[in-house]
Request: fold
Amino acid sequence: MRIRKAVITAAGRGVRLCPAAVTVQKAMLPMVDRDGLSKPVIQIIAEEALESGIEELCVVCAPGDEEQYLSRFRSLRENLLVAHKGSDWAHQQAERVSNLLLRIQFRAQEEPLGYGHAVHCAKSFVGEEPFLLLLSDHLYVSDLADQRCARQVMSLAEGQSCAVAAVHATREHLVGRYGTLSGRRVPDMPGAYQIERILEKPSVSAAEAQLHTPGLRAGHFLCFFGMHVLTPALFQLLDAAIAEAKSAGGEVQLTPALQALAEREKYLALEVAGRRYDIGAKFGVLQAQIALSMAGRDRDQVLATLTELLAESALLRNRETGK
Reply:
């Protein structure tokens, strides 16, 4: 199995980031990356894929967003070349943006019919190939200096010729935020599990009753990391789900199709050596920005700034309480 294509879902309107997302697409929010340069979020996610070996990208977006993405990236490239003319770093970054524009395509989700439907919109792009699936509101920081999170998942998928879900051992009070699964450890594959059962954002009681995975720390469950390698068989399952939803009038979710995929073919989970940050969560942008900076060239500066801010906050609190 060789994985050349990646799909990034970005059709949501960023309700959790309102009112900011009303004026700026959440995927175009600027953040300082590990290299110390400010970039749109979607560029950071795209580079996660490209630097892991992906050759072609497809962004599933809302109707009308395609031209906005393209025009903003073109403007970014031109501004780098004009405003910072003669700077090596600006020329290098302009080349990175040019490379991204050459490799990126778009598919519009004409109606907001659920996450599974959004993934299905990339069917014509994927064709009959396996593909990497990423979220436009998740940023990833690897614990490995020489291997991105996406590369870890892709390596297992290519080595085992099967679908792989990235997962993270998560405390039980947080399972209601994520797709959560149970599985059994695969011998001689550290961190790998054969997926057995998947539930979307279960209650703690449902997780405890149905999703116990032997070998995990007490009170922890395997939760989705926001990253999958999937096979084209998924689209057959989504075709059926869409047909059923049309007759019933409901949305098409991805998790039931993933459960069906696990029942049909080999589907592994991998505990990734890294962390994921949901920028749509409250203070998610702040957490992601600190994490990126702490993993990059500005680590010492960020540590010093955080220490100073904490000291100032403690001093102000002491003044207010009269201590």
